[in-house]
Amino acid sequence: MIKKEPLIFELSSEDKRAFQLPHLDVPAEKDILDKSIMREEIKGFPQLSENEIIRHFTRLSQMNYCVDIGLYPLGSCTMKYSPKINEKIALIPDFLNSHPYFPEELIQGNLEILKITEELLCEITGMDAFTLFPSAGAHGELTGMMIIRAYHDSKEERRKKVLIPDSAHGTNPASAHFSGYEIEEIPSNERGTVDVKKLKERINEDVAALMITNPNTLGVFEDEISEISEVLHSKGALLYMDGANLNALMGITRPREMGVDVIHLNLHKTFSTPHGGGGPGSGPVGVRDKLIDFLPIPRIEKKEGKYFLDYNRPKSIGRIRAFYGNFLVVIKALAYILSMGPEGLKRVSQIAVLNSNYIRKSLEKFYYLPYKSPTLHECVFSDKWQNEFGIKTLDIAKRLMDYGFHPPTIYFPLIVSGALMIEPTETESKQELDEFIQAMRKIAQEAKENPELLKSAPHKTPVRRLDEVRAARNLILKWSK
Amino acid sequence: MYPKDFYYTKDHEWIQVKGDTGVVGVTDFAQSHLGDIVYIELPKIGTKVKYRQILGTIESVKAVADIYSPVSGEVVEVNEELSNTPELINQDPHGKGWIAKIKIADDSELQNLMTASEYEKFIEGQK
What CATH code is assigned to A348-471? Predict the structure, then answer.
């Protein structure tokens, strides 16, 4: 049972204390500390007993929905279950308490971990070198774009534009723009892939790169990727791949064979760090050999059997982060890759694709599928059939909460009106998927027979439908009486 | 629904030509697909824009979208009222929800745009 939980301020009453100091049995000394360093009393500070505080926060935590509770099918997000043992490994005190200022001879093991992880990511993607330092996906994109700029600069070419398909991840245009490039959008064709004809019209010596997400945000594999890379390379432009959807490809195909020059991965999606918890993440960037010199410093190298941090890289874009990235996230990735092994990782991608297609097939008679191309790890439906009854995607998403599921990604990708983007990942059982499918089918039925039920959903959550418009237009972030 | 004396773009903007100036806004199709609009970034007066260049940004509870200029020219006036009441775009997209007035540099560019009946056909084919 979940009831509405008051704010902590509303639970407060005068003079309650969570902790009391023992009675003073010596004379009180006043004014030992200078007034200027004494904190003033905080007006309205909540006053509760210890028990009340514990209950308040425990009840709040019970309202959380997380992947440890059930399916979390946010498309484009890969909200998969990450084995707990990898957390344990990352929390081994020797790792946890390593200080970034330790001298190299004391952190040989840590450096080896970084080096091995770089090499394994090279093997998985086919790239020639990796840097593990970017903090997360968008930081990886920025690093990648800086490398691309440095590459063109080294050839004294001042290219101005970056091409981005309209089905790309939303951060791609932001990262390219932030790197000082003009963005040009490349439309998708009827199949939901990059329109190569349009690309050929737009490509010229002013284009620095194309940023592609593969499989794209429709879950469709860019099957003309080889031709796309040839078109780019023929004009001296580079192919950047957003590897956030790598969960669909491992052990099956490699970005290298697609002609990719730069790629970033999201360790916090694919490689066993939970995604969406506010971090820390990790967004390693892999490059082909012609770009290695531009990778951020330091590089981890080995000389006479010892690892060292190499800062002597004159062509490098420089440091992109303090110290050496989110090291503990890298440890989890390494533990995951080694425990899964090549066959295991391949199986991850196979099951991720299978699960998504199971959902697609089971729901395609109930929800409109705007693009009919085969999909990999995610599928995108829309609210077109439900519109007839006045039901929109948001209503479907809210109703799903009544059935105990986290809703899928909604209204993205933008090329589908009223999109419902579902990515179940490989870590869901058939039983869990069946329950989700059952709920989605029931909702489609309800939309027809009792649309009001959806429009007023959710009904079973501690708070009902929130007024998102008012919240966005009238932003209040501070509680006051 | 779609005024006959407006021109329309594939990106769902409209322009109404009055002499050498064009009033620009987004279409009813655009506002209904964006949903409740919560914020708009207006161009600065005096900004020189090119055909299909970004004129401003519009943010709804669902998405953030760019507004593309239907013609090349100079921004001579913007609808300041939208800063406080962006919902005007939802309520009256072809009237009070206008976004900017542009002094048109080259009116031959209007030939790139669609008429009301062409636009109505175009949106029927949208996914």
Answer: 3.90.1150.10
